[in-house]
């Protein structure tokens, strides 16, 4: 609404100046400036909201940058010179601090899994908000969380893979040291101890190699899911971690919309559909929409309304069935 209002500013001023009854609603230059300030302020919220609540399930790496942009805007306006927005922004910042000040660690890790951003972007954002000292603490916190998650995925992958030493005919650890329960527990503890010393290990982990690689240009378009799909051979464990983190929903809108489509799929004419049939209809609709097809008037998915001719055809079909 504000976009169109500002776009037609000259037209509005001209029409108002010609009509004596509308002159009382004419905006002064100062009021126009306030409208433009409000427009610039709210546009950020509009863009971030559209990103978070997109119908095509945005990946979670968008969370950190979107929340940070809003956080920084609120701080800049609150700490900046007094303006027409000051009285509105201060209560907004109080509510933001109450619900959003503690950034989600897992979703912050998702930002690191964007090859264009990694830890550098997280550190830069925190530094602009809180200064260099606090930024280093937060980056270290995110880094440690990501490494802990990676260790879990690496351990699971290692446990599921075959024992190379045993399969090749070489003596296993249990054969050399012993096979009683106490010795096996000590061996397990030793393995855990070695896994925690990843920084001292000469062989770098997948995560360390990924973080040390040169970032692509931040202005380039990048499909994060496609990136990890292509690099799943180079980073098998890290790709599994990225798959699970990037699929975390950052908005409840897609899940709510899936429930609201129930009335469209299960109408009075299809009240006895089976579970698999309903699932097939929902998936087919989603796939066809993803290809850009307009299903607004499709009766197959329950969006069309029956016309008089359709009613007559249904009555004729019923009569034929009764006669048979």
Automatic annotation (TrEMBL):
Transmembrane segments: none annotated. Coiled coil: none annotated. Residues 53-153 form the hAT-like transposase RNase-H fold domain. The gene is LOC130463012. InterPro entries: hAT-like_transposase_RNase-H, HATC_C_dom, RNaseH-like_sf. This is Zinc finger BED domain-containing protein RICESLEEPER 1-like. It comes from Spinacia oleracea (Spinach). It comes from the Eukaryota. Residues 206-288 form the HAT C-terminal dimerisation domain.
């Amino acid at each position: 609404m504000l976009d169109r209002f500002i776009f037609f500013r000259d037209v509005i001023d001209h029409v108002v100046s010609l009509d004596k009854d509308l002159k009382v609603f004419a905006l002064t230059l100062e009021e126009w400036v306030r409208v433009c300030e409000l427009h610039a302020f709210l546009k950020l919220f509009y863009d971030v909201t559209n990103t978070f609540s997109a119908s095509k399930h945005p990946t979670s790496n968008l969370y950190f940058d979107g929340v940070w942009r809003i956080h920084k805007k609120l701080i800049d306006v609150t700490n900046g010179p007094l303006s027409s927005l000051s009285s509105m922004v201060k209560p907004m910042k109080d509510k933001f601090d109450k619900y959003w000040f503690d950034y989600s660690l897992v979703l912050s890790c998702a930002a690191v899994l964007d090859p264009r951003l990694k830890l550098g972007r997280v550190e830069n954002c925190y530094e602009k908000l809180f200064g260099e000292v606090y930024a280093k603490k937060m980056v270290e916190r995110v880094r440690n969380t990501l490494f802990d998650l990676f260790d879990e995925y690496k351990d699971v992958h290692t446990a599921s893979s075959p024992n190379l030493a045993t399969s090749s005919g070489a003596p296993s650890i249990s054969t050399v040291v012993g096979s009683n329960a106490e010795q096996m527990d000590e061996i397990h503890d030793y393995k855990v101890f070695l896994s925690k010393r990843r920084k001292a290990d000469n062989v770098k982990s997948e995560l360390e190699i990924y973080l040390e690689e040169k970032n692509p240009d931040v202005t380039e378009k990048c499909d994060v899911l496609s990136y990890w799909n292509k690099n799943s051979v180079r980073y098998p464990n890290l790709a599994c971690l990225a798959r699970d983190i990037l699929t975390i929903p950052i908005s409840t809108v897609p899940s709510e919309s899936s429930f609201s489509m129930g009335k469209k799929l299960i109408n009075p004419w299809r009240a006895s559909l089976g579970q698999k049939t309903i699932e097939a209809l929902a998936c087919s609709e989603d796939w066809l929409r993803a290809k850009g097809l307009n299903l607004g008037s499709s009766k197959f998915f329950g969006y069309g309304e029956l016309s008089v001719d359709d009613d007559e055809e249904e009555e004729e079909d019923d009569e034929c069935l009764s006669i048979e």
